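Figure-free illustration: sequence to structure, shown twice.
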Amino acid sequence: MNYKNHLIAFMVCLFSFSPLFAGGEGGKAVKPFRFVQLTDLHLTTKNPNPMEDLLRSIAQINATDSIDFVLVTGDLTEEGDRISLNKVKGCLSLLRPKYYIVPGNHETTWSDSGCTAFNEIYGSDRFEFTYNGITFLGFNSGPMIRMANGHVLPEDIHWMASEMDKKGKEEPIVLVTHYPMLEGDVDNWYEVTDAVRPYNVRLFIGGHYHSNRDLRYDGIPGILMRSNLRDKQGKPGYGIYDVTGDSMIVYTQRIGEPKRRWAAFSLTTNYYDHAGKADKYPDYSVNKQYPKAKEAWTSRPGGGIYSSPVVEENRVYVGDSKGNLTCYNLRNGKQLWQYESGERTFGGPAVSDGVVVFGTVGRAIYGLDSRTGKKLWTVKASEPVLGAITIADNTAYIGSSDSIFRAINIQTGRVEWSYRPVKGYVVTKPLVTADKVIFGAWDNTLYALNRTNGQECWKWTGGLTRLHFSPAAVWPVASNGKVFIADPQRALTAIDIETGKTLYRTFQSTVRESIGLSEDGERIYGKTMNDSVVCYSSTTNHPVELWASNVGFGYEHAPSMLPEKENVVFGSTKDGLIFALEPRTGNVLWKHKVDNSLVNTVVPIGDKRLLFTTTGGEIGLIKF
């Protein structure tokens, strides 16, 4: 063999083993590149520091050689508002590299647009692209509109699997979220990891915890990156990923300092069993302990459900995240009809006198014939309609995100009156009394209006200053001349119904956004943030606890109310548990787990029957 042939043979051997031509488990070639991760920016109109931190990071990224693209992994804003989202976009437009973006829980839990502004501003809450041999898929993992664990929608899981199918099982995949795919963070983590396990997933990339974490999601590697916000030393920062032919090396980059390596992942090592399953699944053993409660029927329409069902005669009505208002047979759960609005429904529908009314993020309120689903009328709004609806005496009462609270004749669709000074957006179900309509908004305010003409009777703020402490998710209740609320500041509050003055505000039980009233009006129920339900007297002008019951549901922050019917108090949790208590003692009558996602406020309908819906997309009837 001559010298030239020796040289060719040597070069073939060299490049055969060079990282440049190494690849994933199936041998797919990966070429070196570098990208940046920005996360947890938390821009707000009330504090200039987060924007300054972001702009400093962008300037340094632009001055860094060989940055191919930027991943922005959620919590762009503090309050999820459109103004802040546009400010973030304005800042990100200064980046020289292209960026790809997903929302965080601050864009989905607190969102006056019903999570539509993000898509309108950024184009989508998903992304897919392939760069130098690796495919990146980003998707939403946050709770929608109300506090709960993170959740990945069924339609997003299907999209992921479909996109990976197109690439084949050898293509290296990086999945980009905000939340970590862990129990306690995302309620259906196991559905996600089981869905992606057959593919060549090299890494999950996320944020949320404002710190660097090297994790495993049922064996699949996962990285959480520090927040872009300045740290204790006053330095903003971000992540840098250097991809070689066979590795992904992770660095933290603080402003004005050398980058610091803190993790690395192989692109060739087999980290998990592709034919295996999740390490753990939800525990339904509680159902064996209380066998008297059984699911008579269940249905999964295919989208998430963020509101309670309503009933008229033998028909059940439910709205979902796919834009459908569906009517089911109460006895057997069979679908009777479906109206396709094309836009998500977050607020609960209401039904009365042959008309079912619901609002959507499509800036509309609809009235349908409750027997056929035929549209009777539409009321347009200038912003998404997220409020639940209360109907009383042929009038539907509903708030929206356009700073308007409306009273609508359900037979004609005529707006009888509008109240326009609402400063925040409305998601709650209004309380309608003999002469007042009472509701909270995400502006620290509880409003009381004259039921007949919409004139303001009073406003209550209780000294609240942070938007996140607003009495906005709780459904107010009233008895004995008082209105009762529970808010995210973890206080139970009694307010004089005529004057709006605070009678008391107690923090002793750490109740949060969940409340209920006994059928006789004598007791107030509250769900605490850890295991317990408490009961207070509604007759006194100072807090008097009557009982506290350890139900054993663990840490809890979901806003689901506590209705009483036929001498049973019902409640539900973010983890799919429904429970029933004796109203005068708090003794547990039964518990039943229906899902692992948030159970919306349950609807007892008498004769020992209970309707439920879950954000995981299930509707069902329990008999007990």
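We now fold a second protein in the same way, so the two outputs can be compared directly.
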Amino acid sequence: MNIVWIFVDSVRRYHSTDDRSRLEIMDKFSASSIEFTEVVTSAPSTVMSISAMMTGIHSFVLGTNYNDFRFNRKTFPTLTSLLSEKGWDCNAALMHPDIREKLTCVNMYPRNKWPHGYSHGDWWSNIKIYNFLANVLKKENLNKKPNKKFWFIDFNCRKDPNTSSIVEDTLQLFNSYGFTKSNTIFILCSDHGYPDPSKGITPDLLKKKKLTHDIFMTDDNIMIPFFISLPKYKVNKKYTYQISSLNIFPTILDYLNIEIPKTSLNYSSSLLDYLEENDGLHKTKKSIDILARSDARFLGQSKRVCCVRNKDTKIIYSYDDKKISYNIIEGLNEKEIKINSQNQSIKEKFKLLKNYLKETDYLPYQTFKKNFAKRISFLIKEGSKKRFNIFLFSNSLNFFEEIIISILNEYNFSNEHALEIKLVTKNKHSLKNYRNLRFLDKDISFYNLKIFLQTDNGKNLDLRFFKSIKASKSSIIPCSLTGSITQKRYIRAFKTIWYSRSYYLFEPKLIFKLFIKLLKNK
């Protein structure tokens, strides 16, 4: 068995008049595949969306902020890592340097095998991606008998009227090297959509207002076209119940009889039991709509927005403003409503969505708590003969602060040997719930320990303030499952070079270009 997965960046699920329109090849491909018409992407952002597809994990959990994001395979098993363990050869062809560096959840084709004239410093056009594939597939010498090959290919719809034909040519190219519907899972999709021009939101407008499209939670932006061809399953089928892009990961593993990894973060369900096989003997489950959430920004970023959706209702939540809006969905149209004016059945649907939002928000709670507890245990010694004073400062989320405070609360100091906490945060907490802690109203001149819970790497004033606090011990805890948070651009540049060294050591000139760029933007 093989997998050929093609995604086209920012294509909508429907036809429109601009370059983000559903592709003609998608209409053609649907005749020989399974189409899901209601697919919610985990994020309207390429890096977040693809990382979620490759792991089956909600995108917001996978990183703290975009600048520091480097996918951490030690924390999250990926489709490619699991396939590689089973002897698969996994490769990707990605168009943009930044995407190649951040999307390490897939395996870029080895740098030493790239065709002549290809540089990591370049943004590859669609035709260049196609020529790349044509060159390397020829060199692979498959003899039209490929087996256990995984290819993940990235195309770009922007300002290229030939995108559809290049995608079609790519499918035919793989066919010519023996990747057929009988021995290959073919997937064709987008990573996210794009705001419809009819709403007045254009790339030029976003650039002028210094906005990015990923903050919009409208269906034109979060719903994706998705087609999959599974050998032995009926093609030319359309399933209209809602699914999430997170369902892809468990479905492929289920089809290949590969065990889903064990994790406290949980996985969405496989879709195989809902699909009809060719022999007609397999009884399918009754179709149901799967609740799905889509997130703008990672867990620790500002301007974070999330939505939870089913087929006819949606809630949109702003974490900065702590406000929820309610939408009714009718086909491709949606409109915001006031919930107080709606009947009880609609209110119950929205209540279900709100409960799902809260439930998924706390999915990583235990994983974070376990990680943080290890770190804090090194900073606090139980049984101290004096009171232990802690200055706890945070620009983080209420979520992280609750975890840290609960960890501190579990140190069962007696009244004579209590933990005293000075908490400085914009968030509100019910401090009476933490009976083993004493919270200080006033500052003291010197602390035994100071802790900074950091999720935003853009607030240097916060870091300066933290450094001004006097304490015996100091710890900055990055609220992330995927690495540290970097304040200085040059340190981040060194990290980029290290994590992407297969590119930079092969092309040393890129190192100089990176630092020249930093100097110019100083």
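Summary for the second example: The two ends are 50 Å apart (CA to CA).
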